[in-house]
Write a structure and sequence with these properties.
With 439 residues, the chain is of the alpha/beta class. The chain folds into two domains: 95 residues, no CATH class; 270 residues, Class I glutamine amidotransferase (GATase) domain (Rossmann fold, 3-Layer(aba) Sandwich), CATH 3.40.50.880. It contains twelve helices and 21 strands. A hairpin with a 5-residue loop joins β15 and β16.
Length: 439
């Protein structure tokens, strides 16, 4: 396994690389010039068509409902997200079942969220199925036919945040099979209902979820294992997409990579706080809320045994209003960005791009938007721990690169970007000890 060294001997590794641009032949025939011109026209037309392509219809046999996956810390005044949940459930008067199962105080959390949903026009009700709910045997409640029928005939469900393991414990039997309540949720979703969840309620959406994970850096160093860092989720989004939450604020894209590689996922969706991803029945992903989401594509990625590494992963950042279709792979920027595609010949940022803490609060998005609007073709981000951490000598280099497929858009209204198809390579690096000395 190739390990890079950081220190005086490798100072050139952190400097902006020198790029050589191949010179065009001095003489081109008229025919060649015409073919080049024609190719550029066809390429531009293809890009426009890709952006504007209609979303596929609902896959045969797939659920008719929608998912609203929220990255945590959803504010009560975030009207756009709350109203959309109610709208997807049928509008004013929609019956929405609220599960406080993840919370340490499920009755309080559940009833508070019932009040918020009702303030936006829903007719929400609390479902008393929770491991921590005093005076109620959750095993009995989860198999109660009357409670299950109420959820089955509801228009939607909402899962509050907390500990996702409490949700799966409450809704699955000890042998892993479904309770009546979980069957009712699936029936409601398949028939057109909406299932929404924040934080822990978002984690359960994929077939595999983080369970008892340590810090992102520790996860990169140690890897992941079933029953430890990972456990089965409820899988509403399907078996082909991995979901994580609190993503940008906590730098969790870094832990998604080893989890996805370990479990064979090719596609991952990570959503930030106070923001939602709406998964429509046609597999169209729509971002709505305060910040945005990351799409991680590992279809062309490779890795080698040893310390964590990955080559040729692709990252895309979807901002509020952007869309991405999981079936076609087509990205569609929001209306306010559509006419403002960035021109690589007119970069705003100039000079080397280096970020000392790539796992910091929203650092990865800052890097991506600077790279796509820069005169540089790549940017470097590092992550390393304290000298007292496990394996203090081990860190990681994240190299982000613009390719011919990379596209960026900027809002004509606000200073926000959408960035599609940035290449990412991650390599382990050796951190010299001590990392620094007093002058």
């Amino acid at each position: 396994m190739l390990v890079h060294n950081i220190g005086c001997a490798a100072a050139s590794r952190t400097r902006s690389p020198t790029y050589r641009i191949k010179e065009e032949p001095p003489m081109l025939t008229l025919a060649r010039r015409y073919l080049q011109f024609l190719f550029l026209i066809l390429l531009a037309a293809a890009q426009v068509q890709a952006v504007a392509a209609p979303a596929p219809s609902v896959p045969p046999g797939g659920p008719k409902g929608s998912l609203v996956i929220i990255g945590g810390a959803l504010r009560g005044e975030n009207a756009a997200v709350w109203k959309r949940i109610v709208e997807l459930a049928g509008g004013p008067g929609a019956r929405i079942a609220v599960f406080g199962s993840a919370s340490a105080s499920p009755d309080v959390a559940g009833k508070n969220n019932v009040e918020v949903l009702n303030s936006y026009g829903a007719d929400a009700f609390f479902v008393p199925v929770a491991v921590k709910l005093e005076g109620v045997d959750y095993r009995v409640a989860a198999n109660d036919p009357v409670l299950a029928a109420a959820v089955r005939h509801a228009d939607g469900a909402y899962f509050v945040g907390g500990n996702q393991a409490r949700i799966t414990e409450a809704l699955r039997k000890k042998d892993g099979s479904s309770t009546r309540m979980l069957d009712a949720l699936w029936a409601m979703y398949r028939n057109g209902g909406v299932i929404a969840g924040t934080s822990a309620g978002a984690a359960i959406m994929s077939d595999t979820m983080f369970y008892d994970a340590s810090s992102v850096l520790s996860t990169l160093k140690r890897g992941v294992a079933d029953g430890m860092e990972l456990s089965p989720g409820l899988g509403f989004i399907g078996k082909d997409v991995f979901v994580d939450q609190h993503l940008l604020v906590r730098g969790r894209f870094g832990r998604m990579l080893p989890a996805m590689l370990a479990k064979g996922y090719k596609m991952g969706l990570g959503i930030d706080e106070n923001t939602s991803m709406i998964i429509h029945g046609n597999r169209d992903v729509e971002v709505l809320g305060y910040k945005g989401a990351l799409v991680i594509d590992l279809n062309g990625a490779t890795f080698t045994p040893g310390d964590f590494n990955v080559s040729n992963a692709k990252l895309s950042y979807l901002d509020n209003g952007d869309r991405f279709n999981l079936l076609s792979g087509v990205f569609t920027p929001s209306r306010e960005k559509l006419a403002n595609k960035l021109d690589s010949a007119k970069p705003y940022y100039r000079g080397p791009l280096f970020f000392a803490d790539i796992l910091g609060n929203t650092t990865v998005v800052d890097l991506m938007h600077r790279l796509i609007d820069s005169d540089q073709t790549d940017a470097i981000g590092l992550t390393l721990g304290s000298p007292r951490d496990l394996q203090p000598e081990l860190g990681f280099e994240f190299r982000f690169s613009r390719t011919k497929d990379s596209i960026g858009y900027m809002s004509a209204i606000s200073d926000t970007y959408s960035v599609f198809n940035i290449r990412l390579d991650v390599l382990p690096i050796l951190i010299r000890q001590p990392l620094y000395q007093y002058k």
